[in-house]
From TrEMBL:
Residues 10-41, 43-87 form the DUF2089 domain. Pfam families: DUF2089, Zn_ribbon_DUF2089. This is DUF2089 domain-containing protein. It comes from the Bacteria.
Amino acid sequence: MSNIDSNILCPACNGFLSPTVLSCGHCNIRVEGPFQLNEFATLPPEDLHFLRIFIQCEGRVRDMEPALGLSYPTIRNRLTQLKNKLAVGLESEVGEKPKPASSANATEEVLSRLEKGEITFDQAMKQIKKGSK
């Protein structure tokens, strides 16, 4: 049996397809109806890989650095982004709004962009100072 990406789009309207049939490979029973995917099933493969590494490293970001080949600030930034994605899914389930990212998260994002060479040191300092006000 092959895995299927849960983010498949409808070829007619580009809406997300959802599962409607579940079957047992042992007794061949089929259950049909509308089924809702959980928030993890709708994550793209790169986010699922990131979560697997996170679990394998038991949440220790320092251990994730060599496994992913990413810096500490980049991993923290990815964790924040993933947390916000999952919070949006939670918001639609329970009606809660995700909390805004803190200034520390914004600083981590700026540092990550600096590390990637997307911005200069001076630009990073300006953004960090602007965010702390």
